[in-house]
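ok posting inputs for the 1-deoxynojirimycin job
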Amino acid sequence: MPHPDSPAPSPHDADWWRQAVVYQVYPRSFADSDGDGIGDIPGVTSRLPYLAELGVDAVWLSPFYPSQLADGGYDVADYRDVDPRLGTLDDFDEMVATAGRLGLKIMVDIVPNHSSDQHVWFQEALAAAPGSAARERYVFRDGRGERGELPPTDWPSSFGGPAWTRIPDGQWYLHLYAPEQPDFNWDNPEVREDFHDTLRFWSDRGVAGFRVDVAHGLAKDLRAPLRDLGEQRSYQPDALPVDGSHPLWDRDAVHEIYRGWRQVFNAYDPPRFAVAEAWVRTSRRTAYASSDGLGQAFNFDFLGARLDAGELHSTIDTALADARRAGATSTWVLSNHDVVRHVSRYALPVDYTKQDIEAWLLTDGREPVPDRAAGVRKARAAALLMLALPGSAYVYQGEELGLPEVAGLERADLQDPMWVRSGGRVKGRDGCRVPLPWTGEGSSFGFGPGGSWLPQPADWGQYAADAQNEDEDSFLRLYREALRLRRTLVADEDLKWQSSPDQTRRGLLWFARANDWHTLSNLGDQPVPLPPGEILLASGPLPDDELPPWTTAWLRTGSASAR
Ligand code: NOJ
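and the output
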């Protein structure tokens, strides 16, 4: 059933994405229909009513394409098919049709920087001679050293080790990720054409939009001689050059590729939409979100920010201004399949950096012992903050259940290539990809009739969706109520700050939007008096008309305009 509070969005509404709530499904870990331990497309279809009831607008599926799973499916062997373990194209069509009946849109992940080494083109390239057209679809080069025994450049793989692998005839090929993920040569028109066909293939099947993987990596400087990176080897988005002159990342030429994509998107009614995964300097994010480009870009600054009022205030302002400049809306993300789940991040000391969190994972989450209660409280407060901001919110599966990171996975169970490629220095991303608990009891806690490809913790049932459904104080009910209200409240794309600089210094974020919708987040350590008004929703109890630390409330103050 479409959500009762609003008519289903018109299928021709070109702006549906601007303030959408998009739910990210990691298909292998969502729901398994056939008991092989791997989530699949019929599993997703069977749970679409749950997502409609949750109140999201769209579902983005991480890759479900044929893949040897060297990188969780981000190594695609065929861009226009479904992995047989996950179903068939007919299953996909059935999913899109069911989603349509429920008023949900489907988005898919496109992985254009690299394919799988099992892709027919790469197999052809390996069989072909150096310099052949087949090799020109990827990046093959001779090595350095007397016998070409050294990699062509010092470029590193993002998963550790060099970005080059040598093949038996002596040439090397480029892979900025795992060796099973050879990089395409985007200077080659055949590659460009082929991706246009892939975008049309899924658009024709009713897909509403695309999430674009490594959107900032496609246009490389491949002119001879290739340049070493030297000091630029360690990749930090904020350290990338402002002028787009890095040989690999965020080069200006990438936008010409997306202008071509935009023409493909605009041939549809409504135009297809895309969001860029681009880990670039904040000031250069706008270009990916422009209306003649992809349309929207992930804002990971919000995800990376500490729960500190001052830091969030400026992160939010920057993101809104950037999006406005691009004619887009901002995105808000707290978790995804690449980061430690935020309930667990917030349960660690506030000043913890990414490196500290990686070190914590290596202790299997024991040192320090996370403060679960604090993590839950902060995550609930952050959720209501995020869902009140103008723009689109991206919710990662299980976030609505308050799932923690499974930090204690055994080494032998780890599947993320980061673990092996880093030589055991980085435990990787499996802990946020453990299959969901749907029921408190039963095989794999309702994930499916068999086991699960990553082991679920013994106490996983305590987070199950069915029990949370019955508990009005649960995470699930908080998300559901927030999404229901959000639909009725969203009327503009702006906010007005109400908190004074002094209040912000003491930890209060307070903003208002049209419809007299006020959001107050207390991220300080002292309770804050609440302004008079009608409380619409709160992330925790509000004793004595006060907003306790680590709590967010939505309210109506009774004044039509923001004060
Ligand atoms: C970003 C994806 O989110 C991540 O999971 C993947 O490993 C890399 N891109 C490479 O495709």
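notes: The pocket of 1-deoxynojirimycin is lined by residues 71, 74, 111, 177, 213-214, 277, 337-338 (CB under 6 Å). The longest strand covers residues 105-110.
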